[in-house]
Amino acid sequence: MKCEIKPESLVRKCYHTGGYVFAKKPDISEKKDFEEYARLASNENPLPPSDAVIKAVCESVARANRYPDEKSELLFSALKECYGSSYNFAVSGTGMDGIIETVIRVIVGPLDKVIVSSPTFSYYGIATTTQGGLPVNIMRKEDFSIDKKKIIEESEDAKLVIICSPNNPTGNVTPVPVVKEILENIKCPLFLDNAYIEFSSLDYTPLLSQYDNLIIGRTFSKAYSLAGLRIGYAFLPEWFEKYYKRAMTPFNLSIPSEAAAVAALKDKEHIKKTLNHTISWRDKIIENCRYPAFPSDTNFILIDTHPHSGDKITEVLRESGVLVRSCRSFPGLPDHYIRVSIGKDWEMERFLGAINSI
Ligand code: PMP
After folding, report:
1. What is 7-48+269-355's CATH topology?
2. Domain 62-266 in CATH 3.40.640.10
3. Domains in the chain: boundaries
4. Centre of ligand 1 from the C-alpha of residue 11, in Å
């Protein structure tokens, strides 16, 4: 039987259009001159997880007939061992995206204002809109530093402020004293997205003991090489923990994901290898790319392709076997930027060859 549902009148308006914009993937039936694309569009770690992590995941699958521990105690104690027992954590089995979604769902209701320092990661706006909230983009300055004064002014009647540092897609950090000043002058929580923090030399965690309006989001998708397992975590203020836990979907983190995260946290060697590789290629790209490339504290680089559009350059690179991200979908960024992730040596060499011969 076919029921007479009219999707447009049933489905909430926020889902009639929009959604997350993924980096474009090539058509697999397409004929091409190379075996494999250089995958430089999603800021993944080109190194696979270490053997210790793979072993832990494989062993954990034997227990997959059971639901995972609802408290994820193994990962909580590994995080406390790594950072200190005074912190309050949340973990997520849908990456930091899951953390962002839950934080926003707890705090933001219809018509509530959320201040977003832009251009930045798009999911903050999407998650806010789906709650009926109103994302307010406060544009970064010409050098991509945040507009501290405007953020503070606009946050007067806001429910949440969101800053990404190091920022996606611009790659720059917001200095700790600037974040401190914002925390001191806003009356709502600040969600600080630290997805790429391991690639920088900054540490905002000492602010947690001084300010109870700071939430820091982190991920295992980047420096820890676990994008495919979708594990996020956060440092929460003590007062917020019980509300966050009430809002979480049950059995949030799968058994293999928890096993992977615990093993990855212990593997300092993997992080060291990742950082050495990333930093050496960051410098080489900035030095050798024919277009201006911005300094970066992340595992990706923003490149200004003016006078060519980001879409055009992305298309030309794709034809040469290189996938990068056109930045057209980032609100507030003009249409002449691409973002390129640091990949394997051959991927970076192909990228430099291709972009410099445009
Ligand atoms: N924040 C930023 C700034 C990101 O770039 C990303 C992913 N690209 C995320 C959060 C989400 O990360 P995850 O894979 O943990 O969901």
Report:
1. Aspartate Aminotransferase, domain 1 (3.90.1150)
2. yes
3. 7-48+269-355, 62-266
4. 27
Q: Is the C-beta atom of 261 inside 6 A of ligand 1?
A: no
Percent of the chain scored above 70 by pLDDT?
99
Please identify every stretch of the chain with a pLDDT value under 70, giving residue numbers as ranges. Answer: 28, 31
- Burial call 188-207: b when 16+ CB within 10 Å, e when fewer: bbbbbbbbbbbbbeeebbeb
Q: Which distant-in-sequence residues (6+ apart) come within 8 Å of 148 by Cβ?
A: 178, 181, 182
Query: How much is the pTM?
Result: 0.96
Q: What is the pLDDT of residues 17-34, one digit of tens each?
A: 988 888 777 776 776 778
Task: Identify which of 21, 100, 219, 297 to mutate to test ligand 1's pocket (most ligand atoms within 8 A of the CB).
Answer: 219
Q: Name the residue of 168, 194, 339 to mutate for ligand 1: max ligand atoms within 8 A of Cβ.
A: 168
Q: For residue 106, how far is its CA from the centre of ligand 1 (angstroms)?
A: 19
Ligand 1 centre to CA of 168 (Å) is 9
- Nearest residue (by CA) to ligand 1, atom 1, is 195
16, 18, 21, 262, 314 from 8: Cα distances, Å: 7, 14, 21, 44, 34
